[in-house]
Specification:
- The structure is a single chain.
- With 431 residues, the chain is an all-alpha fold.
- It has one domain.
- The protein has 21 helices and no strands.
Length: 431
């Protein structure tokens, strides 16, 4: 007869395959485990509620989601895009470079790959496909790929989730993601340039120098958001959660009062969308906190740590194995599930191998974001396919060069820890 833990895992997999959300599937499996073990199911509920009530940092997630949704319904995205066009549109493959730069800027505000693809992505795809400048599948592919930068450059919702399971500083995690995020953007810009030259993609219409001050002035209030947010965190004035609240309020003020681009109906839509997204993330977190009790009782983390130690892997070999594992999991699981359910099991082994947890966090988040654009279940691929009405197969064919570029960035991020830890150390991190 199968043991309770095996049966609980089987139930989780079966429910996930049938389409139930991962969070609810994990909760169901956890409750089954407790019942089969003869334990009080309320233990799982207690574990979940304690994790949620004590997770002050988790409040940053709904606030960052709200800030992104407000920016998407207002004119911030449009103004930022015009500013990016003025900066890099004149180069070969100009709108592809605009796509990259706009994702870098927008990621400093939203912290979400999906928010980037849905908000800024719709506008840039329309620009790229207008008058047949770029094939729709290519516009969709580069939009999906550049959106992966969103959760790497601070602020970052996945980094907050990693902080929850690893007990690391959100501020230091944000700092650790900045240079890797810029490296990913650079690799994609280089790839776009070579593809543009090979396929004869056009430059965008050049913006005269006389127009640049006006476009910059229009974009400055939006560009100030990441400055205020990160400046507040690293100066010690605000905690990450307080900074998220300021970001949401600032997005609301400049959209409603300064740009006057958000109606009451649009604001209601933004609040409704953010509530739905928050509920979705909340269910996933609740499921992970419930499963945490099961993992602890089964001593699963310790067993895996002992197993890996017995394999006698070098640190480099271990990192390669972790990268391959999470990349494969990313093909079938969403990033949040990987961070909240898989990563806690691996952390003891990571510590035993002497790998810095801040460095490991960036590796894991980058891998999880790559999962958003890898078939068969890359969420961003389905989002951009729906926007362009292109068959998913065409989008997948066009996205492969950008996956290769991002894998190149991942190699540097994995094997040059000083590159990742440079900024955190400047800010006082002792790792």
């Amino acid at each position: 007869m199968l043991d309770p833990f095996t049966l609980s895992i089987a139930l989780i997999v079966a429910l996930t395959v049938t389409g139930l959300s991962v969070g609810l599937a994990v909760m169901s499996g956890s409750f089954l485990y407790l019942i089969l073990r003869g334990l009080d199911p309320s233990l799982a509920t207690e574990s979940m509620l304690q994790g949620l009530f004590n997770g002050y940092t988790l409040l940053a997630i709904p606030l960052f989601i709200l800030a992104a949704d407000i920016m998407n319904v207002g004119s911030l995205s449009d103004r930022l895009l015009r500013f990016c066009q003025a900066l890099v549109g004149r180069f070969r493959g100009g709108l592809g470079h605009v796509n990259v730069v706009s994702s870098v800027i927008f990621s400093g505000m939203s912290g979400s790959a999906v928010a980037d693809a849905v908000g800024m992505g719709k506008i840039i795809i329309n620009l790229m496909t207008k008058d047949g400048k770029y094939p729709p599948a290519y516009a969709a592919a580069i939009t999906a790929a550049t959106a992966t930068v969103g959760p790497i450059i601070p602020p970052s919702i996945p980094m907050v989730l990693y902080a929850l399971v690893s007990d690391q500083s959100v501020g230091f995690l944000f700092a650790a993601g900045l240079l890797p995020g810029l490296l990913m953007a650079l690799m994609m810009a280089v790839m776009n340039y070579f593809i543009a030259r090979r396929r004869g993609f056009p430059t965008d219409e050049s913006v005269s120098l006389a127009e640049l001050p006006r476009l910059t002035f229009n974009a400055v209030p939006a560009l100030m958001l990441p400055v205020i947010l990160l400046g507040g965190i690293y100066s010690g004035v605000m905690s990450p959660t307080e900074a998220a609240a300021v970001a949401a309020l600032y997005a609301l003020v400049i959209s409603v009062l300064f740009y006057r681009s958000v109606s009451i109906k649009q604001l209601y839509t933004a609040l409704l969308n953010s509530a739905r997204s928050t509920a979705s993330v909340g269910v996933l977190i609740a499921g992970a906190l419930t499963f945490e009790y099961v993992i602890a009782r089964e001593q699963l983390a310790r067993s895996i740590s002992v197993l890996i130690s017995g394999l006698d892997l070098s640190q480099a070999g271990f990192l390669i194995a972790i990268n391959v594992l999470i990349l494969l999991l990313g093909c079938v699981l969403e990033g949040g599930a990987i961070l909240l359910i898989i990563v806690p099991i691996l952390i003891p082994a990571v510590e035993a191998m002497g790998i810095d947890l801040l460095h490991f966090g960036v590796i894991v988040v980058v891998n999880a974001m790559l999962g958003l654009i890898t078939p068969p279940y890359g969420l961003l691929l389905f989002i951009v396919s729906n926007i362009t009405k292109e068959p998913i197969g065409r989008v997948i064919r066009e996205v492969w060069p950008f996956i290769v570029a991002l894998l190149g960035a991942l190699v540097i991020i994995t094997f040059v820890p000083d590159f990742v830890l440079f900024l955190p150390r400047l800010l006082g991190y002792g790792g």
